[in-house]
TrEMBL record, chain A:
<dbReference type="InterPro" id="IPR035906">
    <property type="entry name" value="MetI-like_sf"/>
</dbReference>
<feature type="transmembrane region" description="Helical">
    <location>
        <begin position="114"/>
        <end position="138"/>
    </location>
</feature>
<feature type="transmembrane region" description="Helical">
    <location>
        <begin position="181"/>
        <end position="204"/>
    </location>
</feature>
<dbReference type="GO" id="GO:0006865">
    <property type="term" value="P:amino acid transport"/>
</dbReference>
<keyword id="KW-0812">Transmembrane</keyword>
<feature type="transmembrane region" description="Helical">
    <location>
        <begin position="150"/>
        <end position="174"/>
    </location>
</feature>
<protein>
    <submittedName>
        <fullName>L-glutamine ABC transporter membrane protein /L-glutamate ABC transporter membrane protein /L-aspartate ABC transporter membrane protein /L-asparagine ABC transporter membrane protein</fullName>
    </submittedName>
</protein>
From TrEMBL, chain B:
<feature type="domain" description="Solute-binding protein family 3/N-terminal">
    <location>
        <begin position="33"/>
        <end position="265"/>
    </location>
</feature>
<dbReference type="InterPro" id="IPR001638">
    <property type="entry name" value="Solute-binding_3/MltF_N"/>
</dbReference>
<keyword id="KW-0732">Signal</keyword>
<protein>
    <submittedName>
        <fullName>L-glutamine-binding protein /L-glutamate-binding protein /L-aspartate-binding protein /L-asparagine-binding protein</fullName>
    </submittedName>
</protein>
<feature type="signal peptide">
    <location>
        <begin position="1"/>
        <end position="22"/>
    </location>
</feature>
<comment type="similarity">
    <text>Belongs to the bacterial solute-binding protein 3 family.</text>
</comment>
<keyword id="KW-0813">Transport</keyword>
UniProtKB/TrEMBL annotation, chain C:
<keyword id="KW-0812">Transmembrane</keyword>
<dbReference type="GO" id="GO:0022857">
    <property type="term" value="F:transmembrane transporter activity"/>
</dbReference>
<dbReference type="InterPro" id="IPR043429">
    <property type="entry name" value="ArtM/GltK/GlnP/TcyL/YhdX-like"/>
</dbReference>
<dbReference type="InterPro" id="IPR035906">
    <property type="entry name" value="MetI-like_sf"/>
</dbReference>
<feature type="domain" description="ABC transmembrane type-1">
    <location>
        <begin position="92"/>
        <end position="392"/>
    </location>
</feature>
<keyword id="KW-1003">Cell membrane</keyword>
<feature type="transmembrane region" description="Helical">
    <location>
        <begin position="87"/>
        <end position="118"/>
    </location>
</feature>
């Protein structure tokens, strides 16, 4: 039956047809083009417009990039080699790369110190940034400030060691006393640290050349390394201050609250450049007669002030975003203020605030270029100052600014990608 | 990283302890280096070269002072300053000496509380225009756009000049000489004005210097000189040291002392009593300003006499290519005239 | 019973200042206050001592002295004989001008780029991402310097100044040079006030007509024509203008006045253009991100719900998505406006005479009054910032979600 059945009912097909390919316009690149670029006349116009824009940009940019001169001693030689053709004069980068990266007065045989410090920083930052990294590396993070100080500023290794001993002593004092009360622990820690510092301060003075690296005055720091250093130092310093300010602003004690509010609003209300003017021009008047911080330290103080106000606002956002129940739960457990903050509130609030903090950090790092306006030779300062002023390279703009932009782009883009990744990691909300 | 800064603060505080607001000889000597304020980059006067060493006419003066005071021309810490920051840096004691082609004016000398210790370059403000503009006098610049460095006396002189001649102009403020040059070459301004020395230096760096002409009018007097803070007697002694170091360099040229023969001439007293007094082989001029008697020898051997410094940094054989002009010795028809060493 | 409900009356004990939570707060605050006062006093004493040592004083008298320098762009009459105070005000107005202009264009650019980043067009989307990332990740100072250099690349005015000048002007009206854009300027003669008043009357009339149209529509369902609105708007000023003998004239750019610059007309100068452009595109990239986040924050259900009610796509955007997205967009937008104002302080990098360049730059330099100048400068920015936040907060609360 089954045989005949097929023959009797003619329209029932008994074998599979070959799978036909989808229609031409629904597959492959054509479909992709149609859906993504030409889905209607408006998008078609937009696409054509964009192609035109891209073409114009690239037709100028690519010859400039690939036809560039990498080997010349000054801009006139560049022009001679190019003979009027489009092309960048990248010889300036080839000749001055070390000044752009490290500043002009940093001794060139000591560049390795900054490189090592930078590599160590990457290792030290890893456990903070990525939870998957072995916790052991936190040791590196803890030691990094001391090693970096030793590497960058030089001098005897005893100075950072003495400070390290003081910090460790303070930490142990804190651990012993913190069970009684947090305030006691803190006080004890600080006192112990100060005593050890005071005692230890005599050792480096006695042995100024023990395992000493060549001391480098902070004035000699410059170039992109200065931007990186200012960024790292000021962001790390501003975190604790930012937390304190945020807590102060959320506090129920009116005087403390108002001090914090005034400080935060003042700092956020003025441009960074005015604060740098203060550091450069005015701050000296407010220090005791006879004291004189060097410029980089004054700048660090002001940028840290600036950054902590912004970070305080981010953390305040994090504190406000915590459900009220968390505060109440902490109270109902009978925790006092410091315990509640340390154990319940801050860990959660900080976690929420991390992307915001990273954004502030990126912004701050970009803003470190403003120090060029107050006669410090960071990357932009090097370009606008010594390099463009020199007779050899006066007139080379795009290559230098492009290089500076590229360096900043790489660092900031990496950080912002990290921030987005982190946001996805921390996003425990299910959509 | 936070502790790093604390240490920085401690060490910086430690290093800086005892530094008074007004610089004094003992401060400099106990520190072992001279903090000298210079410009952030003006080729010929003070600019770091490709190797990062500071070079220039103002820099040479700093080195001479360091040599006179500390016996080492390299014991100088150069502090780059902008037009805005230079006076505060000096007032706050961050620098001991400002050698940043600064014009000696009444108010700076009196109201700002500084002391100019002489003139190391007689300058005047001029204009540069493209030749094809057909301008032959600054008075033809009615309605022109003029690039001017902001924060300098040139800005004030420019306003005064155009106002006095009842002609109009449009200023374009620029921050640095390099930017002024960029704007001028791009045609964003018709004329560029700054000190004539700066104009010459800028023009020398052009691709086609012949396409640009420096107008004959010099619209101001710009006596450029080093300055220190005014203050108590210690500070006034410090001012004397800087003043007489500069004078020693000028006198050395006048007396025929240069970097090659100075050691020779200082080895024993010669026939010329003024040379002997200057080089310390006779009398005790050095002690009077708190230095050793061979201070002038040190200062001159640091880089040579005034003429040598001029020729090496900004003279006719350098890219800057300045003639001595007003800066020749008075015996050659210039204005350099040092008080006697007596 | 009463003994239980009443707390035991303890006498006050000094140790309670630290151990008793009721008093501890007071102690902390007192200590903080004392510390702050001591710190301030320390700074103040240092200031007094340092000033005495340097033989200086604090005085604002310099504001009344002639400034002696010229400013290339002044919105109020200014010459080199004007006072430092007036120079500061000129700078202040310039700051406000560029900030205002940049806020508007940055918003427009930002909204466009933000919406286009969510577009279905792959190329446009990628292009906008490149724009946003490039501008967000490079310091604003570098952008200002680069855009300042770009703006310089235009033709110099000499191109327009020549034998046959009319040929050069765009449409016979505009000149684009590397010193700025020149356009015809209106000249207000006597009687022009009446024309302006007539224009105001026209606008008021037009608004009244619109209201009337709506009223009749709601009351009777009759839709009155919309075109009389143009008559009401334009007729009064035109009639008054003609009656009074054309009191408002036009000042055309004059290319023959001298051999350096185009005179006459109104000129948008290069420094302003450069700074305006730089701030706009830089901040536009940030606003684009805010806009994108705002639109994404409106859940898809809203779009679908609106679509199922039969709204057309542009109506969905205007009536459903944007009003909700605005609530998310506006707070960060405010801080972007603040950033524009603050970033405009970098004006001197392109030669724009804002308040940082006049008061905080030239005046500070020429008078040596660093403390006073910087104090005034900070005060100005502080006031502007607080004003912008205040105004924007009011607006923000008006669009905020009305919750019960």
């Amino acid at each position: 039956m089954s045989d005949t059945h097929a023959q009797t009912v003619a329209y029932v097909r008994e074998s599979f047809l070959e799978q036909a390919p989808p229609p031409e316009r629904e597959t492959g690149p054509i479909r992709w083009l149609r859906v993504n670029l030409f889905s209607n006349w408006f998008y078609a116009i937009l696409t054509l417009l964009s192609i035109y824009v891209v073409y114009t940009l690239l037709s100028d940019f690519l010859p400039w990039l690939f036809n560039g001169v990498w080997n010349a001693s000054d801009i006139r030689e560049c022009r001679e080699i190019l003979q009027g053709a489009t092309g960048g004069c990248f010889a300036v980068l080839a000749e001055r790369w070390n000044q752009l990266l490290f500043g002009f007065s940093f001794p060139s045989d000591q560049y390795w110190r900054i490189v090592v410090a930078f590599l160590l920083f990457c290792i030290a930052a890893a456990p903070v940034l990525f939870a998957a990294v072995p916790r052991v590396l936190f040791v590196v993070t803890g030691l990094f400030p001391f090693v970096a100080y030793y590497l960058i500023w030089g001098g005897t290794i005893l100075t950072p060691l003495a400070v390290l001993v003081g910090v460790v002593a303070g930490y142990f004092a804190y651990r012993r006393l913190v069970d009684q009360s947090f305030a006691m622990g803190l006080l004890g820690g600080v006192v112990a640290g100060l005593i050890v510092w005071w005692l230890a301060a005599f050792v480096p003075q006695d042995q100024p050349s023990f395992l000493a690296l060549r001391p480098i005055p902070s004035r000699d720091l410059g170039g992109f390394a200065l931007n990186l250093m200012l960024g790292v130092i000021c962001v790390s310093l501003s975190l604790p201050f930012g937390i304190l300010l945020a807590l102060g602003r959320q506090s129920r004690l009116p005087i403390i609250k108002w001090i914090c509010v005034v400080f935060i609003e003042f700092v956020r209300g003025v441009p960074l450049i005015t604060l740098l003017f203060v550091a450069n021009v005015v701050l000296a008047y407010f220090l005791p007669p006879g004291s004189n911080f060097d410029l980089i330290l004054r700048v660090i103080i002001m940028i840290t002030m600036f950054a902590s106000a912004y970070i305080a606002e981010v953390i305040r956002g994090g504190l406000a975003a915590l459900p009220r129940g968390q505060y109440e739960a902490a109270d109902s457990l009978g925790l006092d203020y410091t315990q509640a903050m340390r154990l319940i509130i801050l860990p959660q609030a900080l976690k929420i605030s991390i992307p915001g903090i990273v954004n502030v950090a990126v912004g701050l790092f970009k803003d470190t270029t403003l120090v060029s306006i107050i006669s410090m030779f960071d990357l932009v300062g090097m370009i606008r100052g010594p390099i463009l002023a020199s007779t050899e390279w006066n007139g080379v703009y795009w290559e230098l600014y492009g290089f500076a932009a590229l360096l900043f782009f790489i660092v900031c883009y990496a950080i912002s990608q990290y921030s987005q990744w982190l946001e996805r990691q921390l996003n425990t909300e299910h959509r | 990283m936070k502790k790093t800064v604390l240490i920085g603060a401690l060490t910086a505080g430690g290093l800086a302890a005892g530094m008074a607001s007004a610089a004094s000889l003992s401060d400099v000597q106990s520190r072992g280096t001279l903090n000298c304020g210079v410009s952030t980059g003006l080729v010929g006067f003070s600019a770091p070269d490709a190797n990062g060493n500071w070079q220039g006419f103002d820099v040479a003066l700093c080195r001479a002072v360091a040599a006179a005071v500390l016996g080492d021309p390299n014991a100088v810490e150069f502090v780059p300053t902008t037009g805005k920051t230079r006076f505060t840096s000096l007032a706050s004691g961050e620098i001991d000496l400002l050698a940043r082609n600064t014009t000696w004016t009444f108010s700076r000398d009196t109201d700002l509380g500084f002391e100019f210790t002489g003139i190391n370059y007689y300058d005047g403000q001029g204009f540069m225009v493209p030749t094809n503009l057909g301008v032959t006098s600054a008075l033809d610049l009615d309605g022109a756009t003029v690039c001017v460095q902001t924060g300098t006396t040139t800005e004030l002189n420019l306003a005064d000049f155009f106002r006095a001649n009842n002609i109009s102009y449009e200023p374009v403020p620029v921050e640095t000489n390099a930017e002024g040059q960029q704007q001028y070459l791009a045609g964003a301004c018709d004329a560029y004005t700054t000190d004539a020395s700066g104009l010459a230096a800028t023009r020398a760096a052009f691709e086609n210097p012949g396409d640009h002409v420096i107008l004959p009018e010099i619209i101001s007097k710009e006596p450029l000189g080093p300055l220190v803070t005014e203050g108590d007697s210690d500070a006034s002694q410090w001012g004397d040291i800087v003043r007489w170091t500069l004078n020693a360099l000028i006198a050395a040229e006048e007396l025929g002392i240069n970097s090659t023969n100075v050691a020779d001439m200082a080895s024993s007293a010669g026939d010329n009593p003024e040379v002997n007094r200057l080089l310390g082989t006779e009398g005790n001029l050095g002690e009077m300003i708190g230095l050793s008697n061979d201070w002038a020898v040190q200062a001159i051997s640091a880089g040579g006499n005034y003429g040598e410094l001029f020729e090496r940094n900004i003279g006719e054989n350098t890219p800057i290519g300045l003639a001595r002009g007003l800066n020749a010795l008075w015996t050659d028809g210039g204005l350099l005239y040092t008080p006697p060493f007596r | 019973m009463s003994t239980i409900s009443e707390p035991p009356r303890t006498t006050f004990h000094p140790a309670m200042l630290i151990n008793d939570t009721r008093y501890r707060g007071l102690t902390f605050q007192f200590v903080a206050l004392v510390l702050i006062i001591v710190f301030m006093a320390f700074l103040g004493m240092n200031l007094v001592n340092n000033l005495a040592l340097a033989g200086l004083n604090i005085s604002f008298d310099f504001l009344g002295e002639p400034a002696n320098y010229d400013i290339n762009q002044a919105l109020i009459p200014y010459s080199s004989r004007s006072t430092h105070l007036r120079a500061a005000i000129v700078g202040l107005l310039n700051t406000l001008l560029v900030a205002f202009m940049a806020c508007i264009t940055a918003t427009i650019i930002g909204v466009f780029a933000g919406v286009l980043r969510l577009s279905k067009n792959w190329l446009v989307r990628k292009l906008m991402s490149v724009y946003v990332e490039a501008f967000r990740n490079v310091p604003v100072l570098i952008w200002i310097l680069m855009i300042g250099t770009i703006v310089q690349q235009g033709p110099s005015p000499r191109v327009y100044l020549g034998e046959d000048p009319e040929r050069g002007l765009f449409l016979g009206l505009f000149a684009f040079t590397n010193r700025g854009i020149t356009a015809p300027a209106p000249v207000f003669g006597p009687g022009s006030l009446w024309v302006v008043l007539a224009l105001v009357t026209g606008i008021v009339g037009a608004i009244l007509w619109r209201r009337h149209v709506r009223k009749t529509l709601y009351a009777s369902g009759r839709l009155l024509p919309n075109w009389p609105i143009f008559l009401i708007l334009l007729l009064p000023p035109v009639i008054v203008f003609l009656l009074l003998g054309r009191p408002i004239g036009v000042d055309m750019p004059d290319v023959l006045a001298n051999r350096f610059n185009i005179q006459g007309g109104i000129e948008l100068q290069r420094p302003l253009i450069a700074l305006w452009l730089a701030l706009s595109v830089y901040t536009g990239a940030f606003i684009a991100e805010n806009v994108r986040a705002g639109i994404l924050s409106v859940s898809r259900g809203q779009t679908e719900a609106a679509a199922s009610l039969g709204f057309r796509p542009n109506r969905i955007m205007n009536l459903v998505i944007l009003p909700q997205a605005l609530r998310v967009i506006i707070p960060p937008l405010i801080s972007q406006y603040l950033n524009i104002t603050k970033n405009s302080s970098l004006a001197i990098a392109v030669g724009y005479a804002d308040i940082t360049a006049t008061l905080g730059g030239i005046t500070l330099n020429q008078t040596g009054r660093a403390i006073e100048s910087i104090l005034l400068l900070m005060l100005f920015y502080l006031v502007v910032s607080l004003l912008i936040s205040a105004v924007m907060n009011i607006y923000n609360s008006s669009v905020a979600l009305k919750e019960r």
